[in-house]
## 1
Amino acid sequence: MQQGKAQTMAKKDQKDVHVDIIRKTHKNLRRKLANGDDFDQVWKSHCSDDRALNEYSVAMKQLATNAWSTDCDGRDRTEWCKEFSIDYYSHGKLQELLKKDKRRQTYYQKDQQSHFVRGPTPNTDSSFDAARISADVVVDKIKLLDVGSCYNPYSEMPEFETVALDLAPANQNVFKCDFLYVEIVEASNANAFLPNCKSTEHNSNVTFLPSNYFQVVVFSLLLSYIPCPHKRWLMCKKAYQVLAANGLLLIITPDSSHQNRHAALMVKWKTALENIGFQRIKYCKDRHMHFMAFRKVPNDFIWDKRKGGTDSLSMDVLNIPQDFQEMEASSVDEIENLRKSERD
C-alpha cells in the first residue's frame, strides 16, 4: 500500500514538473513581447533553441499520453476531433449546411437589407471556387493536418490520411515545421508535397504546404502557445489557405474557468475568424477547454446578421485570458497598495 502511494506521489511530482515546463515556456514568450521585443526576433530565437523545444516536446507528450488521458474528466481532445470530422464528412453534416446555404440564398433575395449580408469578407481567398468540392463526394480518407501535433495521435486512425507538424517532433510520425512561416504553394503542386510526407526520415522538414488541399486542420492547444494575438489570427488565416472548400478548422484551447467567464472573448474569436472566411458551426465549453469547429466558406457567402456575422470586420486578433494576466496582476497590486495606505 505504501509502495502504491509512493508511486502515485512520484507520478504527481513528475506531472507537476512537466506542467511547470509548459507554463514557463508560454510565460517567457509573453513576457518578452510585453517588454517590447520584436516578435520575429523572439520567435526566431525560440525556434532555434533546440534544448528548450525538445524539453517542451517531451513534457507535452508525457502530459497528453499519461496525465491528461487518465486524469481529465472532460472530453478527449483527439476523439472529439475524430468524431466531429467523421460526422461532418460521412454522416451528412456538410450536406445539411449546404442545404442551409441554399435556403439562405432564397431569404437573401427576398430580404437584402435587414437580416442578411453577402460577402466578400476582407480576407477570404479568391481561389475558393476553383477548389470547390462536391457535397455528394464520399471522402474515403479525410486529409487531416495536425499542427503542433507533438506525437501524431491520429496516425493509427484508418479514417484519416494525416500530416502532423511540430517545431520539435516527439517521434518519426511528425514532421518538423514552423507553420507560422511555412510557404503555401498552389494546390497543383500537391503531388510534389505528398512524397515528402511519406518519408521515413526521422523529423523530416516540411518546407511548404499545398493550398486548398486538406479537409481538416487541427489546432489542439496550439494557439495559446503563440504569444501574440495577431499572430494567432494569422495562423488561422494560413489554415484557411491550406483547407479545401468547406474544410474544417478544429480549435481546442484551454480554459478552466466557469462556463461564462470568457464567453465574450469567444464571441470575439467567432467574429475574428469570420473576418477570414470561417463560419463557426460548433462550440462547446468543457470543464477545462473550449472546443470549436469552423467551416471554410466561399467569398460570396451570405452571413446572417441576427447571429452577429460580419459586425466587426476589422478584427484581426485572437486574445486569450493570459494576455491580460499581467495587467490584472498589476491592478490587484495597486488595489492592495491602496488598501494598505488607507489602513495606515
## 2
Amino acid sequence: MRLNGEISHRDEKGKNEMYSICPGFLQPLKLVVGYALTKKKTKSFLQPKLEGLARNKGILFVAIDQNKPLSDQGPFDIVLHKLTGKEWRQIIEDYRQKHPEVTVLDPPDAIQHVHNCQSMLQDVADLNLSDCYGKVGVPRQLVITKDPSSIPDAVNKAGLVLPLVAKPLVVDGSAKSHELSLAYDQYSLSKLEPPLVLQEFVNHGGVLFKVYIVGEAIKVVRRFSLPDVSKLELSKNTGVFRFPRVSCAAASADDADLDPGVAELPPGPLLERLAKELRRRLGLRLFNIDIIREHGTRDHFYVIDINYFPGNEDWSCIMLLPTFDSALVLFWYGKMPEYEHIFTDFLLSLMQSKCRKRPTVECAYWKNNNGNGS
C-alpha cells in the first residue's frame, strides 16, 4: 500500500489536491515512473520539456539504482526500462512476478522477441494483412548462422533476388548491431559476417514511413531512406557497402518536394489495424514500425523493421552509395513529433486503466484531476 492515508486540500486557485499523510509532512500524490535506461537513452529521452510537462500533469520520473535490489526501491506505479542482458531480464521478470500492481513497460520476453531480426517480422508475415486499403507484408528474407562461404549457395536455393540488405541477426544495443550492408553481387555475399539476416531490397522511392506506437496512439512521419537501385546500376556495381551510424543534425522528408505517389502516407485505417494486431501479437505498448511502399504501387507496403521504445533523439545514418556518383545520401531517424504530450498522456492512460480495474481513493483523485488525459 503506497499511502498511509489521504486528505483533500484546495489550493489558492481553488484546485483540489490529494495529499498523502507521511510522517512529518504532506506530499502531493504523483504518478511515479521508475526508469532504468542507459545514460545515452536517459539524456535523449528525459528532455527538460518532457520532465516539465510531466510535472505539470502529476508525473514524477525516478531513476532506478541498478546497484540496489529493485524491490527495495520505489514504490513505483510504472517501471520503464530499456536495458539489455540476461541478468537484467531476470531482475525485471522477478519484479513483475512479485509486484503485479506495477505496470512494467514492457515485458522482457516481448522486448527480446523484437531484438531478433528473424522473429520480429514473423508476426507481420503471419498476419497476411490485406484489405481494401492495401496489403502489408515483409520482404523475403533468409537467416544465415554459419560459414560465410555457404551464403551464395543458400541465397540461390532460397531464390532471393539481388541486391540484398544484410542485418545482424540480434540487436543488442551496440552500434555494430545497427549496421546495415547492401550486397550487389553473388561473389560479395561471402564477405558478410554471420549470424545475419539477408533481406531482399525493395525499391521504394527513397522514402520510408516511421510509425510510432505509444499505447493506443499512432504517429506517422516520413524519413529519407536508401535510393532505388535500377537494373543498370545493379549490373554496374559490385561489392558490399556498409552503412555505419553516426550522429548528425536531423531532417525529415515531411517538407521535401516529393512525388505525391512516393510521399503519400499509408492509409490510417490500415495502420490502425496493423498497430492493433501487432500490439496484441508482440505484447508491446512502446514500439515503432518502419514501413515502405513498393515503388510503382499505391497500396503495397512492406514492414522492414520493428524497434522497441525507439529513441526520440535526432540521429541519422550517412551513407556513401556508388549509385549516386559519390553523393552523400541521408537516412534520417528523427525525433517523433509531439512525443512529450503523446508520452505523458499514455502514462496517464495506464493509471486510468488501472483505476478502472481497481478503484481506490488515489484513483478517485486521478479521475477528478486527469480524467481527460490532459
## 3
Amino acid sequence: MNFTKILLLIFGVTFLSCSTQKATDATHVTEDVVVFQPDETYASTRIPALVATNKGTLLAFCEGRIGSASDWADMNLIMRRSVDGGKTWAGIQILDRMKGAPVGNPTPIVDDRGTIHLLYQKDYARAYHIVSNDDGRSWSQPVEITYAFDRFKPEYDWKVLAPGPGHGIQMKNGRLLAAVWLANSAKLTPRRSHHPSCVSTIYSDDYGKTWQRGEIVADNSREIKDPNESMPVLLSDGSVLLSIRNPSAVKRRAFSTSKSGIDQWSNVRFAEELFDPTCMASIVSLKKNRKHALLFINPDSEHIEKHPRQNLTAKVSLDDGKTWPLKKVLNPGASGYSDLAVDKKGNVYCLYETNTKNNKGFTYSLVLKKIDTKWIF
C-alpha cells in the first residue's frame, strides 16, 4: 500500500469533518498568538510575511497602516522577532516609512549563508532591497532595485509594481527568487489602478548584489483575468511552481511551473480543489524522511454565501500540486492574507490576517499559529 493511501486511511475520518472543526480543538494546531494589531499608531496591520532564519528565529513583517486601512494610507514597514518559536515577540522595528503613499509588500528570502533579504515597494513605483546579517536584529540601508522592473518596460508598460507579497525562495542552485506583479493601470487618478495586471519573477544569482527580470508568466487574457499576487514554491524535482491569485470567473487558484523559475513557464492551469475567493494565499514545501508535500493556505469560503474572506484552511498535496487530498480548517472566522515558514526542525508556522479586539473588515490584526505536521506525515 503506498504512502498516500495510508495517509488517507488514517486521516479519512478527521478530514470528512474538517469543515466544521474549530481552530482550537485540533491537537495539531496551537492557539493564536497576536503578533501585530491596531493600536494608537496603526489603524490596521496588513500584508503578512514570515520567515524562519537558519538559527530558528521567526521574523514577521507587515504594513503598519496609519489613519486608515487603505492600500494608499501612510505606512510604516514593520517587523518583529521571536526566538522561542513564536511564543513571545520583541518590540516593533520600523524598517522604512512613507507619508502620503504606501511602503509595503514585504517579500523576505533567507539564503544558505544565513543572510535575510527583504524586497519591498514604495508608492507602487519603486522597489528596494535590504539585508540583515545578524539574524534580523539590524538591517542595511535600502538599495533601490527598480532597474530590474524597468527591464519589463519595453514589453509591458507598467504603472504599478510590487513584489510578492509573502516569502520568496532560494533554489538549489543558489538563485534567489521572488514573485512580482505589474499593472498597466487602466485608471491613473486619483490613484493608479491595480489592473489590468500580469505576473513574473525577479531573481539574483549573486546573493542579492544584482537583480534581473524573468519572463512574464501570465498576462491578463481570456484564459486568466488580471493575475497578480503570487508565491513560488519548490517541487520535489527542484523546479518551481508559481501559485497565482486571480479574479477569474472559475474562482480557482492558478498554477504555472518552470525548471529555472525565470523562463519557459508552462501554460497556466487552474487547481480544481483550491477555491480562490480572490485573495493572496501562501504555499510552502515540506520534507520528512525523503517524503515531500506542498502545504497551501487560504480562506476557503466556497460554501459560504458571497464568498467572504473567511474559513482559513490548510490543504496538502503529496504529488507536487496535482491533487489535494488532505484538508484542515485553521480558523473558521474572518481571515485574509497569510504566510508560511518552516524552521530547520520542520516546525511549520502560519501568520495570517484576522480580526481581534472586536474589529471588523480590513481593520486586521496578524496572528501566528504553529502547525504540527503529524497530520501530514
